[in-house]
Amino acid sequence: MRPIVGVITAASLLVCGVARAFDSGTEALVQGTEDADRVATPLRSLKSPDVAEVQRRLKALGYAVGPVDGRLGPKTRTAINAYLTERGLPATGWISPGLIAEVEVAAKAPPSPQPTAARSTIVHDTQRDTDPAKVMVVQRRLKELGFYQGEVDGVVGAKLSNAIKAYQESVGMPVTGWIFPDLVAEMAAPLKAEPKAEPAPPPAPSPVKTWVPKDLVGKTVHARPGDLLGAVVEIVVGRDGMVAGVLTAITDLYGYAKGETLISWAQVAPSVGRPLVILPISADQARPLRRNPPPFHLGPDQMLGSQLIGARAKVKGKTWGEVDGAVFEQSGQLIQLKVHGDDDSGPREIPAADVTLVPADEAVELRDIPVAQRFESDAS
Known about the structure:
This protein is α+β, with helices and mostly antiparallel strands. The chain folds into 4 domains: 13-108, Orthogonal Bundle (Muramoyl-pentapeptide Carboxypeptidase, domain 1), CATH 1.10.101; 127-188, Muramoyl-pentapeptide Carboxypeptidase, domain 1 (Orthogonal Bundle), CATH 1.10.101.10; 210-291, PRC-barrel domain (SH3 type barrels); 305-379, PRC-barrel domain (SH3 type barrels). 36% of the residues lie in helices and 21% in strands. The chain has 11 helices and 13 strands. It has helices spanning 2-37, 49-60, 74-86, 97-108, 132-144, 158-171, 181-188, 265-268, 283-291, 305-308, 369-379; strands spanning 210-211, 220-224, 227-238, 243-251, 257-264, 277-278, 302-304, 312-315, 318-329, 334-341, 347-351, 355-358, 363-366. The strands form 2 sheets. Strands 1, 8, 9, 10, 11, 12 and 13 form a 7-stranded mixed β-sheet that branches. The N and C termini lie far apart (162 Å).
């Protein structure tokens, strides 16, 4: 007798445990659905007026639910899952009061008059298109746009699906990888011609920094700000009109003269237009220059600036006037002379291309044809 009672007791406990486990699982499923999509209550029966109502609402929204028969069959579950997924909710396949209220609001919302201007986030399975002619339209256009690299064969394959997804993402459409009427219409529309970019205007040439001898003569020369080496005495110009350098009177730390030396134009050029001439040399390089400056000797093909200003201006070997001024570029190249004619006709600007320096005679030879003609006419 006791064994029989023990068996009955164990069986009862087993049945109770299974029932509790089933109840716990059901409660967990319902609770999970409630937390995830706000549509939880005890699960509805597989056939009820609520099911029929959801079927009608989903069908009005374009979802394939099958016949509106009040049965929660596979097609209705698939439609519910599609609806929930499109709204970012878990696809439970179940009906709840929250779902009923939500589909009712969605069904009453007015349709968008311009689906291409504000794209719908609802994608309906019934609208997929696999017509080869339309597929080829999509393939050709995506190929033109650089999204699709496969064959234009009218077949929806993995490459085309990925290309469609990439395009949909780039233009803000729902990313499905499927072909729908709005996509076909967009692909069939002619490509908009991109406006041609106007060529950028060429950059304006930077103004050439120019100077005259008096801009440099008298300026102090420094190895660095505060480290005085001396002052500019003269500029030295070659026969080709290029400045060789500046003649500088070097002084020691106490201000006593140590001699005159030539500092190359390459070292002086960066200081054109500045109040000081600052040489790009270190204190160690400045020390021997200050202590024992190399002596300077004017070469046979060189002129001092003071010789150039005031030099005789000749045309065909005959004196025509006198140089009043000279203009140089920052590079040190002579670009223009101002010459005052002997006939008191006033100064004329002569391009450097029409001038030859004659250092030995402290003169310049002018090749300006109008000047030469005028000189000859005056002489006759």
